Amino acid sequence: MIRVGHGYDLHRLELLAPAGQGKPFVLGGIFIEHDRGPVGHSDGDALLHAATDAILGALALPDIGQLFPDTDPQWAGKDSSHFLRAALQLMRQQKFQVSNLDATVICERPKIGPVKEQIRAHLAQLLNCDKGQINVKGKTHERVDAVGEGRAIEVHCVALLENA
Questions:
Q1: DSSP secondary structure letter of residue 115
Q2: Which among 51, 76, 83, 152 is least buried, having the fewest CB atoms inside 10 angstroms?
Q3: Residues 6 or more apart from 27 whose CB is under 8 A from it?
Q4: Average pLDDT per block of 10 residues along the chain, 164 residues long
Q5: Phi then psi for 93, rounded to 5 degrees?
Q6: Is 72:139 a contact under the CB 8 Å cutoff?
């Protein structure tokens, strides 16, 4: 049996504190030097949030916002790998494993090309699979809307799960 799930996340990007509300820019668990960062309740890692939702979706479970609501202070500033690990635990309980994960990161800046292989390796480690099962693509929004103006980042992610 196989299952497919789609995850999506979007975060506003603002100047880093104290000039703005932006947090350090972390994507797929990898820190990227940038003058702006995500605004969010946790660490704002849009890629890990989308990957978490893709896995939860494949399992027909509640989404990340339902399991880890931004109204709960215990998740404030939390490393997003916590949410992904929780989804993976639920996945293993249902006797599934990750067959592959494909993510598209959409932002004007920072460019993810220089860190894409680090992100893939870190995702593979978190998902307990081979790096060849992980794909990460970087796209721009051609300067259209908030993403294209560098004021936001969005991520789409698809996960294919198979019986373990």
A1: G
A2: 76
A3: 45, 46, 47, 105, 112, 115, 119, 153
A4: 98 95 97 96 96 98 95 91 98 98 97 97 97 97 94 98 96
A5: -60, -30
A6: no
Residue type, 37: G
Residue 74 per-residue DSSP state: G
Q: Using CA atoms, how far apart are residues 91 and 41, in angstroms rounded to an integer?
A: 24
Q: Domains (ranges, CATH) in the chain?
A: 2-163 (3.30.1330.50)
Residue 77 confidence (pLDDT): 85
- How many other CB atoms are there within 10 angstroms of residue 142's CB atom? 9
Give the contacts of 41 (CB within 8 A, at least 6 positions apart): 70, 75, 76
